[in-house]
Specification:
Layout: H1 3-10, E1 23-25, E2 35-38, H2 51-56, E3 61-64, E4 74-76, H3 80-91, H4 110-123, E5 129-131, E6 135-138, E7 141-144
Parallel strand pairs: 1-2, 2-3, 3-4
Antiparallel strand pairs: 5-6, 6-7
Helix pairs in contact: 1-3
């Protein structure tokens, strides 16, 4: 996909650059030729420190939260985490638009209600996923949750 087309689809500022993007990557060690590298401001490390590594590994464009000297085009955005989210959403053609999402709120009974609702929907033949404080489940895959409300 062309960089400017991806940026437009993600609602980010265009660069006027039509370089071909093969993948989106936020880990400089995993960058390959043709990748768009997104420099994330981390808690322990700042991804901007690794822009040089990403370029040496083949990044053809950079998304950063501040201007940086880099040979490929640099797209400056206020928040690279939000930009990464928007870019991934656009790259995969907005998959969440095809989901029906139900949120359950309240003081007590959220987990019970979510499991009951999932059971009802599955009995009706619907494919379901569940994100909660116990687990994150999709089809036959279950991962333990590490956060609570």
């Amino acid at each position: 996909m062309q960089l400017d087309a991806l940026l437009h689809k993600a609602g980010l500022p265009a660069t006027g650059c039509h370089v071909e993007i093969r993948r989106i990557c936020f880990d400089s060690r995993k960058v390959r030729h043709g990748d768009l590298f997104v420099a994330i401001d981390g808690v322990a490390l700042d991804g901007h420190r690794f822009i040089g590594d990403a370029c040496r590994n083949g990044a053809v464009a950079i998304v950063a939260s501040r201007p940086v000297p880099a040979p490929p085009p640099v797209v400056v955005v206020p928040d690279t985490r939000r930009a990464l989210s928007a870019l991934a959403d656009a790259w995969f053609d907005h998959p969440a638009r095809q989901l029906q999402i139900t949120g359950i709120t309240g003081t007590k009974g959220k987990t019970t209600t979510s499991y009951l609702l999932r059971s009802i929907l599955e009995t009706a033949g619907r494919r379901t996923g569940l994100l909660g404080t116990i687990a994150c489940e999709l089809l036959d895959t279950s991962l333990p949750a590490h956060t609570t409300t």
